[in-house]
Amino acid sequence: MKDEESGNRLGSYLRARRELVSPAQAGLPAGGNRRVPGLRREEVALLAGISPDYYLRLERGRDRNPSPQVLESLARVLRLDDIEQTYLLGLTAARPRKPRRKRPEHVPARMHELLAHLQIPAFVEGRAFDVLASNSMAVALSPRLRPGQNRLRSLLLDPEEQAFHQDWAKATADFVAALRTTVGDDTENPRFVELVGELALSSQRFRTLWARHDVRSLDGGTTTVHHPVVGELRLHRDKLPVDDVILVVYYPDKDSDSDEKLKLLAALSHTESAGRAHDAPVEEPRPKTP
Predict the structure, then answer these.
(1) What's CA 166's distance to the chain center, in Å?
(2) Is the per-residue pLDDT at 141 higher than 90?
(3) Is 31 left (phi over 0), alpha (psi -120 to 50) or beta?
(4) Quick one: DSSP state of residue 150?
(5) Which long-range contacts (CB under 8 A, 24 or more apart) does 67-74 make?
(6) How far is the C-alpha of 183 from the C-alpha of 241, rounded, in Å?
(7) Where does residue 143 rank: exposed (0-12), middle (13-18), buried (19+ CB within 10 A)?
(8) Which of 5, 66, 146, 173 lies most in the core, judged by the most C-beta atoms within 10 Å?
(9) Phi (first) and psi of residue 287, to 5 degrees
């Protein structure tokens, strides 16, 4: 994956973030005739205590090894949170590159056993949000959680998944920002190249969000979804790393309305599975050869 501006990831990130900070947020008068959204380069330099020429060199990729002090000053001006500041510091040439993962993502056998025993929606995902394994409750919650699906692709391109999420706009922003965090400096990973390329061609929403360079973690949290059978569900989400993959579980508050609905969904899913097994054709025994 070739990042923006021929690999100038630091410059691309700085430019994207300064365009998201308004003069008012930075304590500057808005003024008239502003040609760029957000802050001008010279305004960022002034507020960060560096020369405009040096900041220009950073954005254009002529200096890719600024000091941590300079980056921390820029993070303050650009109003970056802890995750975003960590990401910014990781874009410098001085940071050693992480070793590349050579082997394909693999679901340990014990994870399949665990999934089968869990009575709540649970599945295993890879770094690019590929669903690698799931239990029956996960599929009952959403058919897009079957193995072989990609959660981000479904979220952006599948109308049923879009209707599934109460706050689709927030969900897409969170997922895309989490993907950029996961990609990090692993920009030549074939799976990331394939997924980002596909979504950039097929989704305007993805192109808009990717250009923002937002980064954040997508770990625990609470979400509300609209199931087509049992209705609205308020579920907590936990993501637990296991070897090279992530176990994701969804669960409601005990004895809540969502808890009762999830139990109903489990019963309906079990009944449907039993019905399919009952209706399956039975193979007639072959006559024995005399």
Answers:
(1) 17
(2) yes
(3) left
(4) B
(5) 73/48, 73/49, 74/14, 74/44, 74/48
(6) 17
(7) middle
(8) 66
(9) -65, 140
Type of residue at 254: K
Which region, left, alpha or beta, applies to residue 4 given φ > 0 means left and ψ of -120 to 50 means alpha? beta
Residue with tokens 């049992």: 230
12-66 confidence digits (pLDDT tens): 999 999 999 988 888 887 666 777 778 999 999 999 999 999 999 999 988 888 9
Token pair for residue 222?
């609470």
b/e per residue 34-51 (b: at least 16 CB within 10 A):
eeeebbbbebbbbbbebe
Q: What letter would DSSP give residue 133?
A: E
* Cα dist from 243 to 36, 108, 126, whole Å: 45, 8, 11
Residue 64 corresponds to which tokens in the numbers above?
């890719």
The amino acid present at 192, given as its one-letter code, is F
Q: Report yes or no: 47 and 107 within 8 Å, Cβ to Cβ.
A: no
Distance in angstroms (rounded) separating the CA atoms of residues 136 and 146: 9
Instruction: State the amino acid at position 163 in one-letter form.
Output: A
Q: Read off the tokens for 215.
A: 């980064």
Q: Is 276 exposed, middle or buried (0-12, 13-18, 19+ CB in 10 A)?
A: exposed
pLDDT tens track for 142-162: 999 999 999 999 999 999 999
State the DSSP H helix or E strand holding residue 222, giving kind and residue range, or none if neither: strand 221-227
Residue 102 near residue 190, CB atoms below 8 Å: no
pTM: 0.82
What is the amino acid identity at position 39?
Answer: L
